[in-house]
Design goal:
With about 160 residues, the protein is mainly alpha-helical. Helices cover about 70% and strands about 0% of the residues. It is built from 8 helices and no strands. InterPro entries: RNA_pol_sigma-70-like (IPR039425), RNA_pol_sigma-70_dom (IPR014284), RNA_pol_sigma70_r2 (IPR007627), RNA_pol_sigma70_r4_t2 (IPR013249), RNA_pol_sigma_r2 (IPR013325), RNA_pol_sigma_r3/r4-like (IPR013324), WH-like_DNA-bd_sf (IPR036388). This is Sigma-70 family RNA polymerase sigma factor. It comes from Blautia wexlerae.
Length: about 160
C-alpha cells in the first residue's frame, strides 16, 4: 500500500483511485455514523476525496494515509452538521458485525445505552478495526482517554447483557 500511496503522491491518478476504492467502505461507514443522510454522505465523500486528491502531497507518512483520509472525512462531516445545525447519533452499524449471541439489531439496541462519543469509539474500534492510537488521532483525543472510554463502554455493555 505504501507504494500505491507514493505513486498517488507523484501524480498517478489511477493509484489514487485505487486507494479510494480500497477505503470506500470505511469512508461510507464513518460518514454514515455522523450524518445518516444519503445526500449529506455523498457531499462529505465528494469533498473528502477532492480534498485528499488536492492535498496528498502534504501527507508525510504513507503508513498514516487511512488515518489522514478519515480525519479529513470526519472534519467534512462535522462541517456539514454545523451547517445543518443538528446532532448526529449512531444508531446504525455497518454490515458484517459478527457475534454468535447477538444479531445486528440487538447490537444496535445494546449500543444505544452508551453516550454518542462512546458509541463512535466502539464502532471505530470493533467494526472499522482502528487502533486506539488511530481513533485518538481521528477524534482528536488523548490515547488514554480513548482506552478509558473503551473500557468503560465494555463494562457498561457487560452489565446490560447480564440483566
Amino acid at each position: 500500500m505504501d507504494a500505491l500511496i507514493t505513486e498517488a503522491k507523484n501524480g498517478d491518478k489511477e493509484a489514487f483511485v485505487r486507494l479510494i476504492r480500497m477505503n470506500k467502505q470505511s469512508l461510507y461507514k464513518t460518514a454514515w455514523i455522523y450524518l445518516r443522510d444519503e445526500q449529506d454522505i455523498a457531499d462529505a465523500l465528494q469533498n473528502t476525496i477532492l480534498s485528499c486528491y488536492e492535498n496528498i502531497q502534504r501527507l508525510r507518512e504513507p503508513k498514516y494515509f487511512k488515518t489522514w483520509l478519515m480525519r479529513i472525512l470526519i472534519n467534512e462531516c462535522k462541517d456539514i452538521l454545523r451547517q445543518k445545525n443538528h446532532a448526529a447519533e449512531l444508531d446504525d452499524f455497518a454490515e458484517g458485525v459478527h457475534c454468535e449471541e447477538l444479531n445486528l439489531c440487538e447490537w444496535k439496541q445494546l449500543l444505544l445505552c452508551l453516550d454518542e462519543e462512546s458509541r463512535k469509539i466502539m464502532e471505530l474500534y470493533y467494526f472499522d478495526e482502528f487502533s486506539v492510537k488511530e481513533i485518538s488521532a481521528l477524534l482528536e483525543m488523548n490515547s488514554n482517554t480513548v482506552s478509558t472510554k473503551l473500557s468503560r463502554a465494555r463494562a457498561k455493555l457487560k452489565k446490560v447483557i447480564r440483566r
